[in-house]
Specification:
Blueprint: H1 13-22, H2 47-56, E1 60-61, H3 63-69, H4 72-85, H5 87-97, E2 109-114, E3 119-123, E4 128-134, E5 143-147, E6 153-157, H6 160-173, E7 179-184, E8 189-195, H7 204-213, E9 217-219, H8 226-230, E10 232-235, E11 238-241, E12 248-251, E13 254-257, E14 261-264
Parallel strand pairs: 1-7
Antiparallel strand pairs: 2-3, 3-4, 4-8, 5-6, 7-8, 9-10, 10-11, 11-14, 12-13
Helix pairs in contact: 4-5
Length: 265
């Protein structure tokens, strides 16, 4: 019997959303991922249903599956180094890795750092970057753009559903080879994969020239959030924020965004 799900790929996220909007199944909705205090742009797609899609595509992992992919000794050594340099950030990464870190694992994924949203690994075999998002992170599955009850735009922790929407939209607008790698069998973590790009961060004026050349224009929504006020750009009904040189890699004449937060105006 043919699966009702489209291929497990970032380009099909919006097809999955359409499929579930048309469904009469009673267990749709964001459930435990919803933000009661935020009138966000969430889609009717629960973690369990996303896990069903991943399972149909053979890309659903247990926590142990991912733990086995890590180079346990290297991860432990890198964590120690991060702790020595920035203890509070080391604690943040350790908390997000506690369900996955096994000193005895001998996989090819090496910990190379992380940020506020994701813990980042390098896969020696494929030369790809692997990003881990999970419910243990402060941003959960990555920041999303919401609207509070006073109509102000704000940044809130994202759900698995809204993360996939954000990444699909980002890849449409700024192609970089980003792809879904896998999803936890319980919907508690997300792995994204991206080719390693060797380059450097551009100067601010070059970044602005690139954005303008792609048809984007500076934009400041009604907000009390400094990042949204100062680092946002709009193109038609789509807008991107956290648009800064640190989130762009310049390789030759090509620019690649790596962490823009996407939303709709």
């Amino acid at each position: 019997m043919k699966s009702p799900w489209p291929d497990f790929a970032l380009r099909n996220v919006f097809k999955v959303l359409a499929l579930l909007r048309e469904s009469t199944e009673p267990n749709l909705g964001l459930g435990e991922d919803s933000h009661r205090a935020i009138a966000s742009q969430s889609a009717p797609l629960s973690r369990s249903r996303i896990a069903d899609w991943a399972r149909a595509g053979g890309r659903c992992l247990t926590k142990k599956d991912f733990a086995d992919s890590l180079n346990g000794l290297q991860v432990g050594s890198e964590l120690d180094a991060i702790f020595r340099e920035t203890p509070s950030f080391g604690r943040s990464i350790a908390r997000r890795l506690q369900n996955f870190h096994d000193l005895m694992s001998t996989g090819s994924y090496q910990l190379i750092g992380g940020g506020g949203e994701a813990v980042v690994f390098f896969d020696e075999e494929s030369q790809d970057v692997i990003k881990l998002f999970s419910v243990e992170g402060k941003a959960r599955f990555g920041w999303e753009i919401g609207t509070d009850f006073e109509g102000f735009r704000t940044i809130v922790p994202g759900s698995l559903a809204t993360a996939l929407i954000r990444f699909a939209r980002a890849e449409q607008m700024f192609p970089s080879g980003l792809e879904i790698d896998a999803i936890g069998d319980d919907g508690s973590f997300l792995l994204m994969r991206q080719p390693f790009i060797l380059g450097e961060n551009p100067f601010r004026q070059d970044l602005h020239r690139w954005m303008t050349g792609l048809g984007w224009e500076k934009f400041s929504p009604v907000t009390e959030n400094r990042m949204l006020a100062e680092l946002s750009w709009r193109k038609d009904e789509i807008f991107a924020t956290d648009v800064r040189p640190e989130n762009v890699i310049c390789a030759g004449n090509d620019f690649y965004s790596i962490d823009f937060i996407m939303g709709t105006d």
